[in-house]
C-alpha cells in the first residue's frame, strides 16, 4: 500500500478506509498484539506508519487465505523469515488456491452442463407427456454405459432443447410406430419381410432424427440389446408378445438390406 501520510502517520479511521476493514477489526488486531500502531501524533494519539501498513497487507493476505490470527502472527513474527521468504510463501499459497478454485470452477461448469442437458420439463409436464413412466429412470446407468460416447453427448444436448410439445410429438410417434408394429406381428408378417424391415428402418430414423446418428451396425447392437436386456424386452413385448425378438430380427434384416 502506498499512501501519502502526514508527518504523524495515519489515523485508525484512515487505515480502515483505504484497507477495506473496520475500525473495530484494527482495534482487535491492536488488542491481541498482531498490529499495534507504532507512531504517535504531536497530540499523543497512536498512528500507523508505512511499515504498519505493509504488515497489515500481509495480515489481510493470510486472512484471505483462511489462516487463523494466531498462525498469521507466527508467520509474520518468524525471525527466520525475510521479506522474500514471505513473498515466496504467498506465491505458493496463491498458486495452490488458484488450482483449487480452477477445480471448483470446473466442477461447477460440469454441474451446469449436467443441468443444461437432459429433459427440461416440470414434474407436471413430465407426467402429462410420459404418464407414470419415468423417461430418465435409467439415466444413471445410461451415463455409465455410454457417457463417454459422442452419441450420448449429442442425445443429451438435443434432449435439452425439446419443449413439452416436442416431447409429446416424439411420444406420439413412438406410440403410433408401436401400434403399427404390433399389428404387423399380430398379422404374422415375417421379420425379413419388406413391411417389417420398413418399420425397423423407421425406428432407426426416429432415433437419428431426435437423438443421435444411428448407423446400421449400431442399430444391430440395439436390436440385440432389446432382447438381452429384460427391461427393453419388457418395453417392446408390452406392445405385443414376441415383438422384441421380431424387431431384433427385422433390424438385422434391414441392416443387411442396406449394406448389401
From TrEMBL:
Return the CDD domains for the record.
HTH_TipAL-Mta
Can the keyword Ligase be found in this entry's annotation? Answer: no
Domain named HTH merR-type: residues: 9-78
Q: Which UniProt keywords apply?
A: Activator, Coiled coil, DNA-binding, Transcription, Transcription regulation
TM ranges are: none
Q: Which residues form a coiled coil?
A: 84-111
* Pfam families found in the cross-reference section: MerR_1, TipAS
Q: GO molecular-function annotation terms? A: DNA binding; DNA-binding transcription factor activity
Q: What is this protein called?
A: MerR family transcriptional regulator
Source lineage: Bacteria, Bacillati, Actinomycetota, Actinomycetes, Kitasatosporales
Amino acid at each position: 500500500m502506498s499512501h501519502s501520510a502526514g508527518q504523524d502517520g495515519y489515523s485508525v479511521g484512515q487505515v480502515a478506509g483505504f484497507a477495506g476493514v473496520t475500525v473495530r477489526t484494527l482495534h482487535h488486531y491492536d488488542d491481541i498484539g498482531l498490529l499495534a500502531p507504532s507512531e504517535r501524533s504531536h497530540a499523543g494519539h497512536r498512528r500507523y506508519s508505512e511499515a504498519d501498513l505493509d504488515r497489515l497487507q500481509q495480515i489481510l493476505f493470510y486472512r484471505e487465505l483462511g489462516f487463523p490470527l494466531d498462525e498469521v502472527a507466527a508467520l509474520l513474527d518468524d525471525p527466520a523469515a525475510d521479506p522474500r521468504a514471505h513473498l515466496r510463501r504467498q506465491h505458493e499459497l496463491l498458486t495452490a488456491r488458484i488450482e483449487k478454485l480452477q477445480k471448483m470452477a470446473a466442477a461447477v461448469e460440469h454441474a451446469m452442463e449436467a443441468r443444461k442437458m437432459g429433459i427440461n420439463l416440470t414434474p407436471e409436464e413430465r407426467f402429462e407427456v410420459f404418464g407414470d413412466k419415468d423417461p430418465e429412470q435409467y439415466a444413471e446407468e445410461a451415463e455409465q454405459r455410454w457417457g463417454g460416447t459422442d452419441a450420448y453427448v449429442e442425445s443429451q444436448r438435443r434432449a435439452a432443447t425439446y419443449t413439452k410439445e416436442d416431447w409429446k410429438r416424439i411420444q406420439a410417434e413412438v406410440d403410433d410406430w408401436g401400434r403399427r408394429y404390433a399389428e404387423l406381428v399380430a398379422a404374422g408378417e415375417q421379420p425379413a419381410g419388406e413391411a417389417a424391415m420398413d418399420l425397423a428402418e423407421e425406428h432407426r430414423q426416429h432415433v437419428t432424427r431426435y437423438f443421435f446418428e444411428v448407423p446400421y451396425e449400431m442399430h444391430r447392437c440395439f436390436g440385440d440389446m432389446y432382447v438381452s436386456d429384460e427391461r427393453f424386452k419388457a418395453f417392446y413385448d408390452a406392445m405385443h408378445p414376441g415383438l422384441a425378438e421380431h424387431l431384433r430380427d427385422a433390424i438385422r434384416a434391414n441392416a443387411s438390406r442396406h449394406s448389401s
